[in-house]
Write a structure and sequence with these properties.
This protein has 246 residues and is of the alpha/beta class. Among the domains are: 56 residues; 116 residues, Glutaredoxin (3-Layer(aba) Sandwich). The protein is built from nine helices and five strands, in the order αααααβαβαβαββα. Strands 1-3-2-4-5 form a five-stranded mixed sheet. A hairpin with a 2-residue loop joins β4 and β5. The radius of gyration is 62 Å and the shape is elongated. 14% of the residues are buried.
């Protein structure tokens, strides 16, 4: 007799199938809710928060204050800058004043030095006001003319140099350039002046007035002061001397 193989019961097979189907169903059930719960990535548009009314009101109220703080009127800026500009202006004025004083001092010193150098020459001769100079040998040539004026002076003397400047006006006014002579006194001739001009105790500077070879008058003062240009002008007025221009 043939051995009968035991048949697998159908129920077990169906049970396996059912279990598999259930498992599938359960897995599907588990996956489906995940798809529902998955959140989408927020878009750029949704990321920007829409401002509330309250925030807008706050911003509107705050913005003018910010503008007022930043924007400063030009008058206030000028007022703030005024102290600095005033300091700069004062400093500039002081420096200019000091530089001007220094320049003036330098000019004064240079002019004094120039004048001292010029003292070695006659002002009237240097400026071509007078062309005639006399020495011991030719004094008679001047005195023998119809009219002559001889200035007896010395060099290297500031006061006598100034006198020649003042005499320039008197000489030009009376038109006596051609009749005016200068005799320069030196240390050698100083003691011989009385003999040369035949005047006792002659004081220099002085101006001698000659007419037709003889001494008419000369400038002299009663005090101990040096003669001035006004003294010579007075002598010309006394003798009514003034040559008219051609």
């Amino acid at each position: 007799m043939e051995e009968k193989k035991p048949k697998t019961p159908a129920k077990r097979v169906t049970a396996k199938k059912t279990t598999t189907s259930k498992n599938v169903k359960t897995t599907s059930k588990q996956t489906t809710p995940k798809s529902k719960t998955t959140k989408k990535a927020p878009s750029k548009a949704s990321a920007v928060k829409t401002p509330n009314k309250t925030t807008l009101k706050k911003e509107i109220k705050e913005t003018p204050k910010v503008i007022e703080e930043k924007t400063i009127p030009p008058k206030e800026i000028m007022k703030k800058n005024e102290p600095a500009t005033l300091k700069l202006n004062k400093f500039a004025i002081i420096t200019l004043a000091l530089s001007a004083i220094l320049v003036i001092l330098v000019l004064c010193k240079t002019t004094k030095l120039m004048d001292f150098k010029d003292l070695s020459k006659s002002y009237l001769i240097k400026n071509k006001i007078v062309k005639n100079t006399l020495e011991q040998n030719n004094i008679a040539n001047a005195s023998n003319k119809s009219m002559a004026f001889v200035l007896v002076t010395s060099l290297n003397n500031e006061e006598e140099y100034k006198l020649e400047k003042d005499l320039k006006k008197v000489i030009e006014k009376n038109n006596i350039k051609d009749n005016f002579y200068i005799y320069i006194v030196t240390d050698e001739t100083k003691e011989q002046l009385s003999n040369l001009f035949q005047i006792d105790d002659i004081k220099t500077p002085t101006i001698l007035y000659y007419k037709n070879g003889s001494l008419v008058d000369y400038v002299k003062r009663n005090d101990e002061k040096m003669m001035e240009a006004a003294d010579f002008a007075k002598l010309l007025d006394i003798y009514e001397i003034a040559i008219e221009e051609d």
